[in-house]
């Protein structure tokens, strides 16, 4: 080989190495690139997420990485599921019944957190000027609730226990519509959550609440879902997200008055009202989330998996979903990996 040919060969090899090195670097950059913004769906409930927002815990885990957080209110899990389906949000907060709907309708998401176990913050209410003092007296009456919600599930269980589940007229209404219909005198009863519940209680009486039903074996919870595409690309950000929520629970446990004040400011409600709502629910730290009584672990699923399955069967009976997810699908949908990884750090 002549010196000239040898020089050309070296130059060619150098170009090839540079091209492939460049491609490799580009791939690593794309893989390691973080989103500029994380879109987080929220509901108007003073819980661990509102505390985390008010104490700027999400900023601790995202802002330092150059990631903005955008919080978006949703009036119901139905609307949040639509946003997940259209890839408009990365995280969504909702009642777990809408989590069942998400899985049954193939919305690409994972259940990653229980915000609270519902108690006195959801209830069945009748007008004070009515003569109804017992659930059995609702026979033949009109009762409103948002369908496919935790309130819907609890209402049907209460009616079933009273033996009148087929002898009432159920009306599917959003919470704002329930208040309007209540004020017009169009309803005999309504099962709903805060802050709508407090509005109805000003002129109404509680017949039964979700705490009483939980004691009878019908636990209901609010949950958080993550967009599956997001969690696949950014699993470490999901771990940071649950750590922010856990800090919200921790702050509430140590300083309930401060937590209520912060959440109340975020929601524009009175601090006492926020504290009352918070005390009507049960919040879980990371170690409690993955305990056998709730989510369990990837290796050993907890009791909530059976609650989820039972609810799916119930919603299928009510024609709210067309198929019941398998145990394998439920185990895949409830992903505790992020909490377990976060606890290792």
Automatic annotation (TrEMBL):
Residues annotated as domain Solute-binding protein family 3/N-terminal: 37-255
Family annotation (Pfam families): NMT1 (PF09084)
SUPFAM superfamilies registered for this protein in UniProt: Periplasmic binding protein-like II (SSF53850)
Subcellular location(s) of the protein: Periplasm
Gene3D superfamilies in the record: Periplasmic binding protein-like II
Record carries keyword Heme: no
Key word Signal present: yes
UniProt keywords, alphabetically: Signal
Highest taxon listed in the record's lineage: Bacteria
Family: Belongs to the bacterial solute-binding protein SsuA/TauA family.
Full protein name: Taurine-binding periplasmic protein
Organism from which the protein derives: Vagococcus luciliae
